[in-house]
Amino acid sequence: MTETTDSTNNPQIAFIGLGNMGGPMAKNLLKKGYSVTVFDLSDDAQQQLAAAGATTSTSPKEAAKNAEVVITMLPASKHVKSVYLGDADATELTEEGLLSDLPAGTLVIDSSTIDAAAARTVARIASDKGIDLVDAPVSGGTAGAEAGTLTFIVGGNDSAFNRAEPILKAMGKNIFHAGDNGAGQVAKICNNMLLGILMSGTAEAINLGVQNGLDAGVLSEIMLQSSGRNWTLEVYNPYPGVLENVPSSRGYTGGFMSQHMHKDLHLALQAAKDIGADVPMGAKAAELYDEHIKQHNEKDFSSIMAHFNDSVLTQS
Q: Of these residues, 31, 32, 188, 299, which one is catalytic?
């Protein structure tokens, strides 16, 4: 049975980008009673949403034609700028850009993970047209997207955040207002830089123990009860067989692909470079994933364990 809420005052939503994250997010909006028009380059992705009750479209502009709220979940900065500004390299609005057609008062929520400078550029141009825009990247992975338990990390002014919050709550559990435009992106990449460091370090430590004859599960439990405890040990262990229902125990499939961690680490390095911040551990994690994705691009990011011990690929 479809879960619904009182939709009397729900705004019309356009959702652009129906990948592994965007598709489930749009479905959760439908479950909560929102009217959603969708667009994706994949016809299959659109038809899956049509089966769930969405209206399909042939372009971002058609999807947003009657929308009060536009949500995007796109792969990278160039895609966001291409949709909203009309060109991947644009610094100002062109006629092809979606922002050129949206009326003043529209709310735009971009949940893509992109560089903060691009987010601020698009937000500035939106503001010039009287459009509220928030950057709202997510944490929680595909499982969180499907379950509607994502964490949204939001950048934007108070008014835009207040408008966006009830819509984000239809797709997520924890909604944080990080600050002005771009702040959501900065907070997200800080979190993911730390996650990349933790996963690399956890894999390195477990491998050291295993190579010295310890059982990975026993060692993990010891560290969980000691000062080395961290999220990757507790709920996302990178060694096969230690935890059930995590990517490392199903051939490193599903979850958060290594290519996405690689992207986020390099966004963090760029943000650090822009302000002269020192991030040596983030740089080392990025270096490890630079090498790792040459062979394991689409495997979960916990497969960094294979950098230290490639036998894990035949154990999971």
A: 188
